[in-house]
Amino acid sequence: MIHRFDDAALAGVLGHMNGDHGDDNLLIARAFLPENGRGDAVVTAATMTGFDGAGGVWLATLDDGSTVEVAAPWPSGLISERREVRREIVALYDEACRRLGIEPRPHA
Are 24 and 100 in contact (CB under 8 A)? Predict the structure, then answer.
């Protein structure tokens, strides 16, 4: 069974990602868009809209003005603890940089 996080965890993570890591959202959406069936599109903006124990979800705005949901599974597999979410988002960011040929910034 896939873990569902409570509203406080969702609000905290989504608020942080969308408030402080907009560029990371964009990189993740760009890198994982091809796995979501839209490899031909160009992502111009992205907002993290949700997550559960299986992965994260972003709403990507494309260059034609349309939007598409981009889902990315957690690199380490299923999770169930809020503290694991940060680790997995960092891993998604690192994988996005690898896929896009971008040098990732150091992590604190």
Answer: no
